[in-house]
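OP here, attaching both records as promised.
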Amino acid sequence: MADPTEGAARACRFTFVVTILTGSFLLFLVQPMVARMALPRLGGAPAVWNSAMLVYQTLLLGGYAYAHALARVRPGLQVLIHIAVLLVGAAWLPIGLALTGSPAGVTPALWVPWLLGASIGPLFFAVSAQAPLVQRWFSIASRDGDPYALYAASNLGSFGGLIAYPLVVEPLLALRQQSWLWSGGYVLLILLVIACAFRLPRGASAAVARPTSVPATRRRVLHWIALALVPSGLMLATSTYITTDIVAMPLLWVLPLGLYLLSFTIAFAANREIADLLTRIAPITILMFGGVMIGGFNESPLINLTIALTLLFMASVALHTQMYRLRPEPDRLTGFYLAMAFGGALGGVFAGLVAPVVFDWTYEYPILIFAAGLLVPQVFLTHRIRSLWTTPAKRRLAYAGVVAMLVLLATLTFRGPADLFGEGHQGLTFIGIALIGVISVGARLSYAMILAVTLVIFGGWRAVELSLEQGARTRSYFGVYTIRDGRGVRELDHGTTVHGIQFTGSPVLERLPTTYYAPPSGIGRAMEALDGLYGPTARVGVVGLGTGTLACYARPAQRWRFYEIDPAVVRIARDTGQFTYLKNCLPHPDIRIGDARISIEADRPASLDLLALDAFSSDAIPMHLMTREAFAGYAQVLQLRGLLLVHISNRFLDLEPVVAAAAQAGGWRAAKLYYQPEQRTPVASPSQWIALTRDPATMRALSQADARWVPLTPRAGFVAWTDDYSTILPLLKWRR
């Protein structure tokens, strides 16, 4: 006969698990949803996501602080207060953006957090307190149940919410439908909280909730904070790398955060085998992959992406496992989670606010990798290695051998010939690092020295050299820009994407449009046809300034207008003298600083004859510039015979169907010119341009000027992107 007590315990546990899963699922489903809503207003910069994450971490900290304070009153009153907070948060349903336009002169670093906080702050605050509160209630209701296992379930729900958004919710539902779906889930959560209330012992006093175990020492609390800070900051640093070099959209934003949350699920799981195994091999992973990431393999960005995500996941599992090992008794879990949230918020502040202001490169990345190596638990891999470091005489010899090996490897890297093992002997260096790294795992001081040298010789020193070189590097809210000189050319890079190349030393060559903008390219051919189409006083607009390359197509009587979101790019192209396209060809350009879509919507209708859309967010056009609403804005600013040129060259996405669908929906005629030079040189790069116009005669004239313009054919079944709906899943170039 079944034990009724056991059945009641299972039912109690089921109620609390479902409640905590639902709350966490909603909490992390709303993050990419609101960021997606904000894209048309905030622009597609990768830093928008980091700003959003900082808001979420701050609200999470507030929710955990509230849960910690609430845990001091009797359980029944806790439930009543929390239900009241949830009902107050319901006033912000359905989810949407609370404010209408960005105030002039306000930096995005301040405006983005304010917008997101005003839009979902109360809702996020109410739901974020769910995990620690429900765990505390479970420990009271079950008396001997382990509440920390519920935290693993909580993060599993969070991971599920993140993954569900790009794979299921975004492709199937418009934003308005997503908002109502989330609102329904929020109502369900309130009902589940009420169900949990019935599981609490009736008439329980505040003494039931009062902690009785020994409180954590200050040193232990600081250790918790450090263990939470490093993976949180590393997650944001990894997000910056990914969204800079692929595309700024939730599908990629959620990858680092999803793995970060999944690491909690593994670290706090009742079954310890996986967590212990990954923690044991984490030091080697950090050592090897940390060096690879700092060195970078720009030729294989997807391999780089995989390595970056693996590094983040392994470090997060190891550090969160250590946090689990240092957890307090269940009666003090709210304080434990408060310290964890505080550390997470500090990591967000460091990576999202401090680093972009203090550093001119992503120095936060190697700093956090090094900090992870210092904090990660370490054990000697074999007994023989352990004896090497525990015997005083052998330990001195081991340290001497490690130092000598590091000096040798550094010498080979910086001074060795480049004809063996790859450039600068890096292949040999990598093998040497792996060997002494394996021997040093468990000996923390030796391991720290090896990790520091690895980060320096595989790219850290080169980064410092560029930082010391006057004007070589600039960092802004929108990314890191690097200027490189060599072989008679000067190059501007944003991440791993070239934003412009100019020849130096020759007045004639300095005026030559290069790379994607060479005369044989689509934009080059359109510029040559400009006089014939619109006469000598044509009005030209360009979205995305870069180095100002396109300015050298300007003619004296023409009127040109640039739209550029980043003031740092304007300074590089116009003010520093490092690039002279504007100085030589268009000395007094009209430059509108701000998000191009917002600026274009504010411009006078029919004020342009040609508009070139070249707004790279590293390797992709920000998706909010590719919707039907955005194309309607382009149509408004162009005269009826106007020409729209869209640059869609991309390593990862096939953007042709997006433009074709937008053209079909907006009544545009479209043609494409894909230019492939015989060999890739600074003079010309492969490029893909699409021309759109609402005037058949304009398209005929363009095609007659160059027969390489061919009609654009929409992809069957592909729906035009809108501000309310978009997905990149059908566009991914999987073979890259």
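Record two, same layout:
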Amino acid sequence: MINSIDENYDIVVIGGGAVGSGICLDATLRGYKVLLLEKDDFGSKASSKSSKLVHGGVRYLEKAIKEFDKSQYNLVKEALKERAIFLKNASNISRKLKINIPNYSYFSLIKNYIGLFIYKLISFKNSLGNNTFLNKVVSSYYFQNLRKKNLKACISFYDGTFLDFRMIISLIQSAFENGAVVKNYCEVRNFLYDENHKISGVKYFDKIKNKEFEIKSKVIINATGANVDNMRFLDNETKEVLTLSSGIHIVVSKDFLSSDEAILIPNTSDNRVIFVLPFLEHCLIGTTDNKTFYEENSKVKDEEIEYLLKEVNNYFDKTLSKDDILSSWSGIRPLVKSDKSKTEQINREHSIFTSKSGLVSICGGKWTTYRKMANDMMDYLIKQEKIEKKELCETKKYKLVGNRQKKKNLEKLTSFYPISKKTKESLILLYGDNSTKILALADENKDFDLLDERFPYLKKEIEYCIKEEFIQKPIDYLARRIGLCFVDKKSSLELVDIVCEKMAKILKWDIEKKEKEKFEAKEFIQNYF
């Protein structure tokens, strides 16, 4: 049975990842009536599986110089501008990060120094700090595990880092706050067409309510990342526009890095770069870049793990083995189709396509430029007269939900509650100024109990996330609200039962539903982390 909803939208956005969420917010702030549909949880695919960097891309700059490629240069220049906007508008979940490049020859030292000098020049007024030079003695002191044999020096520069899974929620909340309708676990299964064979709406299936709905809209935007081609095929388009690339990351103990700064390995055996980054009190290592095919949920392959371990171990005295890995995951990058033989050579620019029926698709790009991609999409729709012009773009100076108070103010506001320093830091990091809502919720009946004594998470966070952050399943909370699955697979599995019991009580699940959710969450964590 199909439930027609008596509502017309200006824009329906399919896809609740970085690009879809960004478009939803931009369109809503301009005054359009917007519906966003995501078939799983918001950000559950590649958007929560990035390298957690807000960056111009030093490796793209290297390609631009080596190959005299103006498009790569323009991408770096644009991304550095967007980096500054990103860090300002999401100041509680992003920060600048010092990245160090170890050099084992004087030639690489000179080459990297010149490259980073150009990188800083391009950033101009958006520079995050001065490049610095650390000799062998100082480098060995700061990074005690770094291989010292033949080490000449480290060169340091600044880029940004952020929590991608929290950024998605901040974007979704901001759009919702301004009037957008946002729905996760709603899968678009068919398009509606008018008598001229032009797209006029969508049929979507709500997996939670187990019902199908029909919606009418002036414009349908396909922002589904690696799924873009599949949505276009649903619209009877036959030409592929994507090349898919897999990227994995592994997480190990923070002792391996022993620093709040990052290391960039500049020269792997196949001329890629690898980042070793601080991430949620752990150490994140990535990434790979290999051609792949579409999978609903991609798995980490043994050969990809072996590749990362081999390349990283070349640069550190204390080597890593598979037994040291606490968690790992794989994401699929949706790159614009190219004649390049290797995916790492493909430009990260984005493209917008319109099908014969009027379906508008966007692909390519990267997290750092999500806002510009959204801006370009809205300008394109207006220029093509698919929608009437309303307000101008507001996202350049729009502070996202959770990022509107300074950290110092939040520390003062949260100091009145009976919680540990670790819990206070965790709340501020994950929820920003919304942490006070969680504490107010806990204060109502003086329930400041922890989910588990080993971790800083309050039980009340689950209730808040159900009310304010759209969680429907235990995996939503464990993976994409607190990020535990990304750093500690074993503990995530252990906490599934506790999270399920709490959610079952709030959402009034019966025993059968509760056991089903427990099984699905454990199976997902076991298979995909």
